[in-house]
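re: the backbone from monday

yeah here it is again, tokenized this time
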């Protein structure tokens, strides 16, 4: 793998921003970003873009905000970008199998827990509620289950007595970006799917 990978990033909330930053700082080429549609927020119900969209637009990267990801139009739009790899961090929807298998290196997910613990939504909150002494992020190969794919890289972080779900959220968002993604992509152990 000597040529830069063509990567599509899928993420929406603030938790995903450090992951996109990490990809933008790598030699890889982010060819597109997919995030949830803008939503109305606050008392005035002002239409606000997701944090990932804001960063992508600042970086000049094309952004897709589909309302449906299970149709031919979306699949064709992603296919046209010719991705080698899709990286997902807190996108907010379950991806169809055809999308997961589209890139030659498949689709990886940056998940905010030490899998297999705390699969699915709210892993950070559950780690705090359950009194865990450590948390972390896991880079995993995605399959059609919910956080059930092969674990590629887990990175641990101690939970301190002062940590709340808010402080842990910030720490894990950062950990999922530069330390995890850059380490994984830099290892050059990204392999083609069978």
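seq for it, each position gets an aa:
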């Amino acid at each position: 793998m000597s040529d830069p990978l063509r990567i599509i990033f899928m993420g929406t909330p603030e938790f995903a921003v450090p992951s996109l930053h990490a990809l933008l700082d790598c030699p890889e080429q982010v060819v597109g970003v997919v995030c949830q549609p803008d939503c109305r927020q606050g008392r005035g119900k002002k239409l606000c873009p997701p944090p990932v969209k804001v960063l992508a637009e600042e970086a000049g990267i094309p952004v897709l905000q589909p309302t449906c990801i299970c149709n031919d139009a979306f699949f064709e739009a992603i296919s046209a970008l010719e991705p080698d790899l899709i990286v997902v961090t807190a996108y907010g929807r379950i991806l169809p199998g055809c999308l997961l298998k589209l890139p030659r290196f498949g689709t990886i997910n940056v998940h905010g827990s030490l899998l297999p613990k705390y699969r699915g939504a709210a892993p950070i909150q559950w780690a705090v509620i359950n009194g865990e002494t450590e948390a972390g992020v896991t880079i995993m190969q995605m399959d059609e289950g919910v956080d059930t794919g092969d674990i590629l890289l887990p990175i641990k972080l101690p939970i301190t007595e002062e940590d709340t779900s808010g402080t842990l959220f910030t720490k894990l968002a950062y950990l999922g970006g530069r330390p995890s993604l850059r380490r994984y992509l830099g290892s050059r152990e990204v392999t083609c799917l069978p």
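The mean pLDDT is 91. The radius of gyration is 16 Å.
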